[in-house]
Amino acid sequence: EVQLVESGGGLVQPGGSLRLSCAASGFTFRNYAMAWARQAPGKEREFVAAISRFGIDTNYADSVKGRFTISRDNAKNTVYLQMNSLKPEDTAVYYCATAKSRTIVADLHEYEPWGQGTQVTVSS
């Protein structure tokens, strides 16, 4: 059974940092590109970042480019999202997902399944 378990969310002040983790199991992790997405209250889920199978290629939403970094450790079956210079508008539930193919496009239809999510709240 495929499982994706996100962790690392919490409450942080504007300008602060958090690192999210997504532990994967039930499939051969290194064979799949991975992605992070987020969903704020009352809004649709949106693409945040994606990373290729061996971490060579990445793709970011314009809203997080330069502030967030996606990475992965295939030995630990884990994908990370380092979030710096956080803003109140980054407040959302963050989800990780497995890519259906080897591409790292921003289309969320290309990613399945999704984890349960971890809440990130940016507030003073």
3D structure, described in words:
This protein is mostly beta strands and 124 residues long. The protein has no helices and eleven strands. The strands form two sheets. Strands 2, 4, 5, 6, 9, 10 and 11 form a seven-stranded mixed β-sheet that branches. A hairpin with a 6-residue loop joins β5 and β6.
Quick take:
With 124 residues, the protein is mainly β.
Rounded to the nearest angstrom, the distance between the terminal CA atoms is 40 Å
| Arithmetic mean of pLDDT | 96
The low-confidence runs, each spanning 5 or more residues with pLDDT under 50, are none
Strand content: over 45%
- Portion in helices: under 10%
Radius of gyration: 13 Å
Count of helix runs: 0
Judged by helices, strands and strand pairing, the structural class is mainly beta
Q: Give the SSE string.
A: EEEEEEEEEEE
Count of β-strands: 11
Based on CA inertia axes, which overall geometry fits?
Answer: globular
- Largest sheet, strands/sense/barrel: 7 strands, mixed
